[in-house]
Write a sequence for this structure.
């Protein structure tokens, strides 16, 4: 069964600190892995998209890593800001023309002053 | 470029009533999705359109949910009759090509069924 598991479920950090969110997946066939940021009351916004051959991709203070052998990904946030408070969703595409996206439940990050 | 537009933003109805949601995707995006997101969960696909044709509606509760995209642009999602468990955010998303393209989401319609 195709699944995407994220940890932790929630996380509270102080402003300026770094944090790392985890994503483990069992999806086959694998096409690509995406990280989305979802602010409260808004739709998800794409942060990164990585294919099988990519093992790291950055978007500003966000850096995603992918280990296709262990089927794990992480999202590292550097020097957190209050605006980073959001849910972060890991999404794996099972490929094919239809895309077949498998969504994780997300990690809820709260950045406190 | 303009984003994915959805309306209404919020809707409160009583169980057994009907409700409809509207979505206008980004211009040129052939693929349109409706997702249901229950609080604390990731989005769950309800239906996927390619232009005005249905690609995947395997998770759409067809006894009460219906969706259409008549001219291959705007789309409507309807629930009739609504149940308490339909309370969720309904997200519309669009993309040109899902292979490696971003999926753009609207802000969603938050539905509360009382």
């Amino acid at each position: 069964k195709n699944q995407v598991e994220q940890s932790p479920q929630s996380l509270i950090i102080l402003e300026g600190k770094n944090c790392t969110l985890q994503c483990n997946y069992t999806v086959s066939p694998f096409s690509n892995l995406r990280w989305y940021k979802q602010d409260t009351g808004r739709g998800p916004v794409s942060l990164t998209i990585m294919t099988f051959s990519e093992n790291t991709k950055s978007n500003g203070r966000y850096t995603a890593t992918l280990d296709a052998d262990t089927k794990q990904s992480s999202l590292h946030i550097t020097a957190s800001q209050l605006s980073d408070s959001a849910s972060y969703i890991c999404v794996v595409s099972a490929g094919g023309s239809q895309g077949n996206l498998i969504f994780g439940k997300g990690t809820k990050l709260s950045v406190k002053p | 470029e303009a984003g994915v537009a959805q309306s209404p933003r919020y809707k409160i109805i009583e169980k057994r009533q009907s409700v409809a949601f509207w979505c206008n995707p980004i211009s040129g995006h052939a693929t349109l999705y409706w997702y249901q997101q229950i609080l604390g969960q990731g989005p769950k696909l309800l239906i996927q359109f390619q232009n005005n044709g249905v690609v995947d509606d395997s998770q759409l509760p067809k006894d009460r949910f219906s969706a259409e995209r008549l001219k291959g642009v705007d789309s409507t999602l309807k629930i009739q009759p609504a149940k308490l468990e339909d309370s969720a955010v309904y997200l519309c998303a669009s993309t040109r090509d899902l292979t490696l393209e971003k999926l753009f989401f609207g802000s969603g319609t938050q539905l509360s069924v009382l």
